[in-house]
Amino acid sequence: MKRVVLIASISLIMIGLFAANQTLLLAKSSPTSIGSSEAAAETMTTAGQLYEAGQYSLAAQAYQQLVDQGFADSALFYNLGNAFFKQGDYGRAIVNYRRAQELAPRDADTRANLALARAQAVDEVKAAENGGILNAAGQSLKSWFSLNEVAMVALGAWMLFVLLMILTSAARVGSAWRKSLQYGLAATALVLMVSVLGLGSVLYVDHNQNEGVIVATEVDVTSGPGTQYVTEFTLHDGAEVQVVEARGSWVRLALPGADLAGWVLEPAVEPVGR
Fold this sequence. Notes:
Helix content is 58%, strand content 13%. The protein is an alpha+beta fold. The strands form 2 sheets. The protein has a 5-stranded antiparallel β-sheet with strand order 6-5-4-1-7. A two-stranded antiparallel ribbon has the order 2-3. A hairpin with a 2-residue loop joins strand 4 and strand 5 (250-254).
């Protein structure tokens, strides 16, 4: 019996290690923090001073320099969004507020400023309502938790489940301790199931919805990837779209919640994901 418990325990540990590795691979790599570089922190300070002095264009250039160098945290994207907003560049403001929200979804200032920027957009594009249960669950979770947070909860639940399974197997049959462990195991199993389903729904949304924002003042959306095609409709700065595919220098996009799709030149739309 003890040999069976030992083999089962080793198997669970191996499965747990594999699950941990896969969860960390599925989650986005941790963004490079501004605080990890003295030079980046100085640039951030300088950009903040430029912003306070009303030199919004120069501040945006400084913040963008950090983004181009691979730095990514919610404060950087939030400040860059503010710099674009002050210039009336609402499309790029929305892009960066949304990037900040991906990393800090519960930040009230980011939510408020994103709403202000969206209110300036000319086109009223409604969110899709028929994405299915998995899509709805993923969108709901993403509005409050980052992907890494959801992944860590799933990983923690699995590790706790493995530990309780080992302890339950080793406990004496019929003892009060074993019964308590069994109750804890059942509760942990439920949390594990919910967290894994939640992680799956967030990953589904991330991998199946390539979102972008129109950053051109005005752009004609054509029926095909070229200027020779007929113009289907026109979009303006700040319109949020779904990026369907790319072909050369052209991008096919669709409007969420509407049966409208077409092609624009790639520089006219900036993807939210990086």
